């Protein structure tokens, strides 16, 4: 191992679901303590803390967390970057370690989202019902959500999937629903998933429509949860025990991008270009190609999103996402298993936790510790998240050679 | 930016009502990129001069969703879509069309249409817009 290689030494996630008796500090603490223990270290070893939380981003979650598990005076970076918050926290810790400023970093993402309902949408109501008054950047005299398109997440990502159909050939409602069927089926093997319920295609298509073609089970599940990871360098890892070295997972690529200008990006967030850019950079940094991946955890916030990311991550030829899916490639027994954790649709999506929890899933397989859902002999995996607005985090992970 | 008579006001300032309803974009004088809001510099090329341009009122539906569940107070179902008007993408509802997958089709030709949002105490009528099937 090279001195400046980055390694995940310890990593953990809480069960995702409804944790009515725990706040975000409790959840973050549970994940952080478990990650430290998993890595065989404690807060005294940690030189930097990157703490992710979105819904209470002004509250100083990182400092609250230190008071819960160990106040050592190390710098805290409180991180918020939409649904890429967890991956951004991890990348923040990685950058600090890679710079040589600290030997070990801790990244934590925690969120309370159970019962949050529909995200996005609504907006300002007309305060004075008696007079039309232009307000805001667009001089709107009335709320525009529902009148000039939709601000809701299910509707936004529905359009992302439909746009793919317009560009490359129409995608049926059934195809999108089958993607959801896959992820719900996968979740039955994951005891930490918020939902472990298998749905038939008919149940998925016949469930409550949220934003065509996304029905309720095709949307990410709002829930509570946390995940945390300890990162260090090859130089430090070499001084640790053989067991720590064997279980460590190499971060072969850590990439964060934002959306570059595209003609229509002011109209519909472009989640494609930044993912392709991040994927290209990540494959190059890691020296691997999409066909080398033994498993992929990608940001299936909606069934319509998973489809486009097959293409964006170059798991298939351009325009070939439907053929790729219909070949069975992304099922757990396929050539490129995608979201064997159950994905955001059934494992759940506690926003800031998601970008570390999907890395935990990949690490779990690379370490050979995934039990009944183990992807046999997994050596390389990729974890991807998108935060709308937009931010894309991609990490490529490799099994320790020891 | 838009021209209105004293008795009508557009739902957003980039909807011009006269001489006939159309959208107006701020176009980068250097590269031609178009924006419906104000920018200090062009997001594409960083130039700082913009000129108002009229956007074509007919286009093609390149994406849509039928929103069945929305925030409180937002009437459902409605069709939200992306319309390519010439080289400019526009966000709008598809109106005067059944909100069903059988009636709304990717690639369908649509044109700008307006409707009344109601009148305030001063007698001013707010005007909304959407795109309706053109065939």
Tell me the count of domains of chain B. Answer: 1
Assembly context of the chains? heterodimer
Mean pLDDT of chain B: 95
CATH topology of chain A: Peroxisomal Thiolase, Chain A, domain 1
Distance between the termini of chain B: 31 Å
State the helical fraction of chain A: 25-40%
What do the pLDDT scores of chain A average to?
Answer: 96
Number of strands of chain A: 11
CATH superfamily of chain A: Thiolase/Chalcone synthase
Class inferred from helices and paired strands of chain B: mainly beta
How would you sum up the global shape of chain B? globular
So what's the overall shape of chain A?
Answer: globular
The appropriate CATH architecture of chain A is 3-Layer(aba) Sandwich
Largest interface: pair, residues per side: A-B, 49 and 50 residues
Biggest sheet of chain B: strands side by side, in what order? Answer: 1-10-9-6-7-8
Q: Uncertain spans of chain B, ≥5 residues at pLDDT below 50?
A: 1-5
Describe the structure.
The complex is a heterodimer of chains A (402) and B (135). In chain A, 34% of the residues lie in helices and 17% in strands. Chain A has 402 residues and is an alpha/beta fold. Chain A has a single domain, classed as Peroxisomal Thiolase, Chain A, domain 1 (3-Layer(aba) Sandwich), CATH 3.40.47.10. In chain A, a hairpin with a 3-residue loop joins β10 and β11. The longest helix of chain A has 16 residues, at 24-39. Chain B is built from no helices and ten strands. In chain B, strands 1-10-9-6-7-8 form a six-stranded mixed β-sheet, with no helix packed on it. In chain B, strands 2, 3, 4 and 5 form a four-stranded antiparallel β-sheet that branches. In chain B, a hairpin with a 2-residue loop joins β7 (78-85) and β8. The radius of gyration of chain B is 16 Å and the shape is globular. Residues 1-5 of chain B have low confidence and may be disordered. Chains A and B meet through α4 and β5 of A and β6, β7, β8 and β10 of B.
């Amino acid at each position: 191992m090279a001195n400046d290689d980055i390694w995940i030494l310890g990593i953990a996630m809480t069960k995702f679901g409804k944790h009515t008796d725990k706040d975000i500090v409790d959840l973050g603490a549970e994940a952080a303590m478990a990650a430290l223990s998993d890595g065989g270290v404690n807060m005294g070893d940690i030189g930097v803390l990157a703490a992710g939380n979105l819904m209470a981003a002004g509250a100083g979650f990182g400092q609250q967390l230190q008071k819960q598990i160990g106040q050592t005076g190390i710098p805290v970076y409180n991180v918020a970057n939409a649904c890429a918050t967890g991956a951004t926290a991890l990348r923040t810790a990685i950058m600090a370690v890679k710079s040589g400023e600290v030997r070990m970093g801790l990244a934590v993402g925690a969120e309370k989202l159970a019962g949050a309902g529909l995200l996005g949408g609504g907006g300002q109501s007309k305060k004075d019902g008696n007079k039309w008054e232009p307000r805001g950047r667009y001089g709107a005299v009335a709320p525009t959500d529902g009148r000039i398109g939709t601000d809701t997440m299910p509707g936004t990502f529905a359009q992302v999937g439909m746009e793919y159909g317009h560009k490359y050939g129409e995608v049926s409602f059934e195809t999108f629903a089958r993607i959801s069927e896959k992820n719900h089926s996968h979740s039955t093997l994951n005891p930490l998933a918020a939902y472990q319920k298998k749905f038939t295609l008919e149940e998925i298509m016949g469930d409550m429509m949220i934003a065509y073609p996304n029905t309720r089970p095709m949307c990410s599940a709002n829930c509570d949860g946390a995940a945390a990871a300890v990162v260090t360098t090859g130089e430090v890892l070499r001084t640790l025990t053989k067991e720590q070295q064997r279980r460590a997972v190499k971060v072969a690529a850590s990439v964060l991008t934002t959306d570059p200008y595209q003609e229509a990006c002011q109209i519909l967030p472009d989640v494609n270009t930044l993912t392709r850019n991040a994927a290209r950079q990540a494959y190059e940094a890691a020296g691997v190609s999409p066909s080398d991946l033994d498993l992929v955890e990608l940001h299936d916030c909606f069934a319509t999103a998973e489809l486009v990311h097959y293409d964006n991550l170059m798991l298939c030829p351009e325009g070939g996402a439907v053929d790729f899916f219909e070949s069975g490639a992304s099922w757990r027994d396929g050539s490129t298993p995608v979201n064997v954790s159950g994905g955001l649709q059934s494992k759940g999506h506690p926003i800031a936790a998601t970008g570390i929890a999907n890395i935990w899933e990949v690490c779990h397989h690379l370490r050979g510790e995934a039990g009944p859902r183990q992807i046999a002999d997994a050596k390389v995996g990729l974890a991807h998240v998108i935060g709308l607005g937009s931010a894309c985090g991609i990490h490529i992970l490799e099994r320790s050679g020891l | 930016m838009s021209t209105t008579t004293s008795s009508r006001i557009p739902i957003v300032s980039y909807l011009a009502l006269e001489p006939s309803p159309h959208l107006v974009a701020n176009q980068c004088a250097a590269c031609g990129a178009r924006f419906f809001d104000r920018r200090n510099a062009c997001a594409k090329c960083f130039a700082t001069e913009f000129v108002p341009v009229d956007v074509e009122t007919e286009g093609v539906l390149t994406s849509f969703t039928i929103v069945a569940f929305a925030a409180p107070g937002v009437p459902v179902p409605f069709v939200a879509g992306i319309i390519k008007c010439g080289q400019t993408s526009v966000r709008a509802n598809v109106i005067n069309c059944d909100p069903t997958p059988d009636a709304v089709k990717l690639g369908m030709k649509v044109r700008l249409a307006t409707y009344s949002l109601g009148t305030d105490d001063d007698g001013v009528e707010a005007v909304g817009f959407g795109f309706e099937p053109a065939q």
